[in-house]
Fold each of these.
Amino acid sequence: MNLKTKLQLLEKLIPNTWLYQMQYIHSSLLVQWILRWGSKPLVFSQKSAIVFSPHQDDETFGCGGMIAMKREHEIPVIVVFLTDGQGSGSSEPSSQEKISQIRKREAVTALGILGVSPSEIHFLEKPDGTLQDLKNEERQQIIEQIIELLKYYKSEEVYVPHRKDCHKDHEETYKLIQKAIAQSEITIEVLQYPIWLLWRAPLFIILKLQDIAKAYYLPITSVKDKKNRAIASYISQTQSLPHGFIKQFLGTQEIFFKAES
Ligand SMILES: [Zn+2]
């Protein structure tokens, strides 16, 4: 039984309220440690950006402050959603279709608050929860779509979920973008944003010191209210996610990890 399986078993055995409390304490300690000792300040850049988000909310949780700051300076920001977000509803097809539409609308609202217009948002609509199980052909098709977007927008920075983000779709998103960058042979700065990593990763077991060495923090105080309003507009998600989990993203800094491109 590997470490991830053991952790999943442990998650099933502990009552949810205790588990969330423990995870909140754990993630808060880890965030404080990274912010105080384990990271360097990220200089706000004027570079245009493209943000790849597995689900409708990850981009706002992980990069909402960065997006709002860039847009306030009229720097182009493109947001691309890989999945349709159906996984957060019930398994009934009609309800899945409904949740997918709701999440799309919430994404447009949230990104509107952050300054991104609907024409700068792309939905690739792959089935939620399946990115890791795609057949080679489907996989290559998404990579081609990503390459097309990278070449069309010529963004200077790309934002992706952390490569060890403790969620299948998130980790696969990282791999797909890295493959697309390699195949397109473009040069672009890659920044990883953590969503589940600091919540689920046992202290220093999944996150190695060499990963933390690449941590940077971006102060987002000036746009914090905008980010918090954008998060609040994801009503379907804020009602179902643990309270402590959302709290991680309401602070005055965002954490990013630089990656080899
Ligand atoms: Zn997600």
Note: The chain has a mean pLDDT of 90.
Amino acid sequence: MFEDASRPALTHASLDRAAHLRADDGALAAMRADPRALVLPFRKRDPLLVGEGLGSLGWRGLDDPLVAGADLIFLGLEEGAPRYAAGLGEVDAPEGAFIEMRAALLGGAFGGDAAAVASGALALVNWHATHGHCARCGEKTRMTQGGWRRDCPACEGVHFPRTDPVVIMLIEREGHCAIARNVNFPENLYSCIAGFVEPGECVEEAVARETREELGLSTGRIGYVSSQPWPFPMSLMIGAIAETTDTDFTLEEAEIADARWLSRADLRRLFEGGWDDMAPPRRAAIAGTLLRDWYDRRIGWT
Ligand SMILES: [Zn+2]
């Protein structure tokens, strides 16, 4: 529908996921013995970053004492060489630093393919860290299939990594778009509104409901734009555009502190730092991609 939409950050990682190998115990064992195999360590939720400006992933060999005894999550193949992630406890960085990933994404050096690979790894690390017990019977589960499943030895339940869908939408009205300040945002930050898709809803219904709940606007046309995995802790942001003919906001006060209509020129000014009391969405967030694409006329109806 919007062929010119930009690719959001954290997408299209270069790794070959090689999903067919996950259930192949022989292949998994062979890959563990591959001298080219590398593992990306996480201290709790923070990836090891190295190099200039901490812009590179801190891959380690599988024989590194840092990851001794850790469960290894098979991420995929990089030019045929196995790549893993490992969620560790409180450990010291052998070089570089363990950095909270959202903070790293705000900096200048970390991004591109390194961030896309780390994003998928972090979502898996987050899932394993919070799903150590069976949701059916409470027994401890164990990692299987190279980290893409957890099995329960007591009730034989199998559990797969979760991704939670979230809709995030640019609201358009006659050459203007709505931006809003969530009560939990850093001061002055304005962005698109967003919310979790509820059970029983399709994406369009979730967009319409959230737009009515948070801003008090009815919606007409709703279109899909692009999506972004967002591993905080394990969401999939579904970027949409929704059209309205309503002008007046009725804000959901518990969630939204302020909302405004901006023209394309005003929105461009926001991203260029031209407003004293408003700041644009953070670098790497899909909200910024949607808003920039809209003022550049890559997406939108009016
Ligand atoms: Zn169980």
Note: The radius of gyration is 21 Å.
